[in-house]
Design a protein that fits this description.
Shape: elongated
Distance between the termini: 41 Å
Protein name: DUF4179 domain-containing protein
Number of helices: 6
Organism: Dactylosporangium darangshiense
Helix content: 10-25%
Keywords: Membrane, Transmembrane, Transmembrane helix
Structural class: mainly beta
Strand content: 35-45%
């Protein structure tokens, strides 16, 4: 895969990344710096997407090298939020193999410094053990300590416990573990929760997402990553209480055919290069192609790369593109590209979401950028009847200005947590929405369908 295919492989996961190179796609959603193994990086994942023969994914708090215990890490009792996960029975095809599980525990207990886990067998937990798609054998083990950590042991399918290699580790801070590797996606949480799955959501005209849920067999989800349906999500619940709901993976979709680059309602100027890349990225991420889906450009323009001597060419284009489904709504995303032969591209977490009627959509976003520092630019794309905007903090108007065909831009440094309101020529409110800055790589869930955490 090369050119556009490589680019889509980098951006299709839909995570909050400011730089869609391979390095940035693997950056953590936590404030901590992420470190990954170069041989077989596996860890706690937020979202998984699948290309033809590749599985890019995001790790949360993963690490490489020997996971040091650290002062006090191996003391104390686990936090209440993860206690039920650590005390749940082993999952996986080898869960009933007492001798295999014991061999894993013995291996760790005999060399606890190597694994950064306690040497006390009573405080060791094998959370998962079994063969997974991709012809691999996977073991996830953790320590029941005051600052729990899980390690990943990996090997060929059928490998003995002593032949598995230490391939990653992560701090256990949540009671749901999501993990992906070459060929598989895995999700599990505490025992005794009902597990349901949903794929192929419907995007409605009012901007909401409708899903149909069905029970999943067993108490954990393990899937072949090469056959995952679009926008797969998992839910853990007890009765009416949802304990967790979040994305698992996306199988990806083929790029759509040529799209009309003319922006709707005269919002901006045509940017055919960026529009085609943005449409292909949305199609890949959401699996949305076919006769019932058409792609529209909500806004596009020229784009001046802010790092012309680094990763960008200095001149480029930007486009916000939406996939309009048969139900009237759909996801949209914004991509900026430079003018190099194989385009460098950037997105931004505030530039995407799920919308209903394109004529009623109000988008407020920070611009993608090629530098480490986020620019202060705030872009507004409003319904065509809107002629002016206000940035409001409660009853106070922070800033305001005119809109042309519903489009405006201002320089307003963050962090912001404001309401943006747009007005027509008779001073009537056309639309309003909340806007909040997102810090790079901080947890905010899926910007298209947020996670639900009920713990």
């Amino acid at each position: 895969m090369s050119g556009l295919g490589d680019l889509l492989d980098q951006i299709a996961d839909g995570a909050k990344v400011y730089d869609v190179t391979n390095v940035a796609v693997r950056k953590s959603n936590n404030r901590r710096r992420l470190r990954t193994f170069t041989k077989s990086a596996v860890g706690l994942v937020v979202l998984v997407c699948v290309a033809a023969n590749a599985l890019p994914f995001i790790l949360r708090g993963g690490g490489m090298g020997r996971p040091e215990g650290g002062p006090g890490r191996l003391d104390g009792e686990p936090p209440a939020v993860v206690r039920a996960l650590l005390d749940s029975p082993t999952r996986g095809s080898l869960a009933g193999d007492i001798n295999y599980v014991k061999a894993v525990v013995d291996r760790i207990a005999d060399d606890p410094e190597r694994y950064g886990l306690p040497g006390d067998r009573a405080r060791l937990r094998v959370l998962f053990a079994g063969d997974v798609p991709g012809n691999r054998r996977l073991v996830i083990a953790a320590g029941a300590t005051g600052a729990p950590r899980a390690i990943t042991l990996d090997g060929a399918a059928g490998a003995a416990a002593g032949k598995l290699e230490l391939t990653g580790w992560t701090d256990v801070e949540e009671p749901v573990m999501r993990q992906g590797g070459q060929g598989y996606a895995l999700v599990f949480g505490p025992e005794r929760y009902e597990l349901s799955i949903s794929s192929s959501p419907r995007y409605l005209l009012d901007g909401t997402v409708k899903r149909t849920w069905e029970p999943a067999p067993g108490d954990y989800l393990l899937r072949d990553a090469t056959t995952l349906p679009p926008r797969l999500r998992v839910r853990m619940s007890k009765g009416d209480k949802v304990f967790f709901e979040g994305p698992v993976a996306s199988s990806g979709g083929n790029p759509p055919g040529a799209i009309d680059p003319t922006p709707l309602f005269g919002r901006g100027k045509p940017a055919p290069r960026a529009a085609q890349v943005a449409a292909s990225a949305v199609a890949y991420q959401f699996g949305l192609t076919g006769p019932d889906v058409h792609y529209v450009v909500l806004w596009s323009d020229d784009f001046v790369v802010d790092d012309p001597n680094g990763t960008g060419s200095g001149k480029g284009q930007i486009a916000t593109v939406m996939a309009v489904t048969a139900d009237g709504g759909g996801p949209y995303n914004t991509l900026a590209t430079d003018a190099s032969a194989q385009p460098n591209a950037r997105n931004h977490p505030t530039g995407g979401g799920v919308a209903g009627d394109p004529a009623k959509l109000l988008i407020v976003m920070r611009m993608p950028h090629f530098t480490k520092e986020e620019p202060a630019t705030l872009q507004i794309v409003a319904p065509p009847a809107a002629v002016r905007y206000e940035i409001r903090n409660g009853d106070a108007v922070v800033a305001g200005g005119a809109l042309t065909n519903g489009v405006g831009r201002l320089e307003l440094p963050g962090p912001l947590k404001v309401t943006v309101r747009v007005y027509d020529d008779k001073n009537g409110v056309v639309a309003e929405r909340a806007f909040a800055d997102l810090e790079p790589y901080t947890p905010a869930g899926d910007s298209f369908e947020p996670e639900v955490k009920g713990w």
